[in-house]
Design goal:
2 copies of one chain form a homodimer. Helix content of chain A is about 25%, strand content about 30%. Chain A has helices at about 30-45, 60-65, 70-80, 135-140, 180-185, 190-200, 215-225, and strands at about 55, 85-90, 90-95, 110, 125-135, 150-160, 160-170, 205-215, 230-240, 245-255, 260-265. In chain A, the strands form 3 sheets. Chain A has a 6-stranded antiparallel beta sheet with strand order 5-6-7-10-9-8. In chain A, strand 2 and strand 3 form a beta hairpin. In chain A, helix 1 crosses helix 3 and helix 2 crosses helix 3 (about 70-80). Chain A is globular. The two termini of chain A are about 40 Å apart. The interface of A and B includes residues 253, 255 and 261 of A. Chain A binds a DNA duplex (19 and 19 nucleotides) through helix 3.
Chain lengths: ~260, ~260
DNA sequence: GAGTGGTCTAGACCACCCC
DNA sequence: GGGTGGTCTAGACCACTCT
């Protein structure tokens, strides 16, 4: 068990009740709730609690870490703010999952221009799944060596009968072995939901870079537009626990009746 | 003074020490810290504390509202999370302002493809300022009547010597009277900083919609590219306190060496 | 009713800033 | 040294969920 160092009050004792050493707070001070947050994250990485499951109650965790409920609370608040945990009053605190309908398209920012800002659930047409080697761009994004084995998936997202997005999704073949079109097609739901249940890897956050570009022949064919049509190019890197990049994706999006919506705070 | 209704404990008393009425919690329960947050926001709207100034200390506010420091703390935490207040340990809590260098380009998401993710500060070339009437699109965005008087400003943002963004910024002439090219040019700093100091209206948040489109003749001329070049079109509505829309803006962005960066959580 | 998260309080002490 | 925000605790009670 890790020994936590508090900022004040009685020194904490490890579960074995050995007295705390004289601990100088150290050069870089870390609040207790931050340390608890890290411990909780480690338990999540270790798979102690799986996506969708409940973690122990605040009182139980407080007892386990020998801190007050309020301190555990603050750690959980932070993780809930990062969409890693979900609190449900009267029921418990749960590990977030992409499988829940509410989080199904958590990272999709394309919405119709007309109507409310409610997200529309598109349908998916898969094109193919291929094995290949990491390009320089993909290698840089996923922290792989150039030429490392990767699996590339292509699909079209159809909104209200109209093909809107052509996605190319690249994953390390080492982390995600034996991906086939069949397995992906069978899995109802989002890619992330499939990766989560199939490989136990949960996407925590993502970075996107957007550009405008002209449709090439392939994109034009899949999106049923003329070559040269301006498309929104959305490059995404998605990360699991520990800021480890595990997915590279390029979406080419027809912004005709649809747009990329973003809130700035 | 507003009477706050607590969820528990002794009923609170108004400053005049009149006893609280028997208050049924009511159909929709509101935590105390939420009510405090609203009161603080109202004070901000009323201009009780101006941008850049310090608000009273947590202890003072706790005394003013007759609640504990912890409750005030939670209200301030929420406002700080919304970038409306800024906490500075040892100094106090301050009203956020666009004038600080750190928040100068708070809403600008265009960054260079190469190099770190540090923001680059562009230089501004103003084109013109014109009076006009609100189009249907602007009227809808700013909650005005079609044809209402508006002031439109155009400018080019230059990154490292290259013109990258052509902006058209539309504001209500009623809310922002007597805008002239001279006054804006003189004001060093961002538009929002200028509006804040000149009109006392602070931008709190913004919504953006992104599309890809081909450059028209005007855009091509200002951005020094061929007509038809794919550009990133960024439509923005910016809001002040109370979710009141006060600025409509369309940025046409050359995504050549630069891209729109976004973090998804 | 028991158990969970959510609110609120009161008080102690720490870290930072400035006089 | 005194003020400010930041951390941590202990305890009380409320709101929600399930049984």
């Amino acid at each position: 068990m890790t020994v936590l160092t508090s900022m004040q009050n009685q020194p904490l004792v490890a579960p074995n009740n050995s007295p705390m050493p004289d601990n100088i707070p150290g050069p870089s001070f870390r609040p207790l709730y931050d340390q608890i947050k890290i411990l909780l994250t480690q338990s999540l990485i270790a798979g102690e609690w799986k996506p969708g499951e409940a973690i122990p109650s605040e009182m139980d965790l407080a007892a386990r870490y020998q801190v007050s409920q309020g301190t555990v609370r603050k750690a959980i608040d932070a993780l809930a703010g990062d969409n890693i945990l979900i609190r449900r009053q009267g029921k418990g605190t749960f590990v977030a999952t992409h499988t829940e309908p509410k989080h199904q398209y958590r990272f999709l920012r394309i919405i119709p221009d007309k109507g409310s800002k409610d997200k529309v659930h598109p349908t998916t047409n898969f094109i193919d799944v291929k094995r290949g080697k990491a390009s320089a761009e993909v290698a840089r994004a996923l922290d792989l060596k150039v030429g490392a084995p990767v699996t590339a998936l292509r699909r079209v997202l159809v909104f209200a009968g109209t093909p809107i997005i052509l996605d190319e999704i690249v994953l390390s073949s080492v982390l995600f072995p034996n991906l086939t079109l069949e397995k992906i097609s069978e899995s109802r739901g989002s890619i992330y939901s499939f990766l989560e249940t199939g490989y136990g890897l949960r996407m925590i956050r993502a970075e996107e870079r957007l550009r405008a570009m002209a449709a090439d022949a392939a994109a034009a064919a899949y999106l049923l537009v003329a070559e040269g049509t301006p498309l929104l190019c959305v490059d995404r890197i998605a990360f699991t626990y520990g800021d480890k990049p595990v997915e590279w994706r390029r979406g080419l999006c027809l912004t005709d009746g649809y747009s990329y919506y973003n809130e700035l705070a």
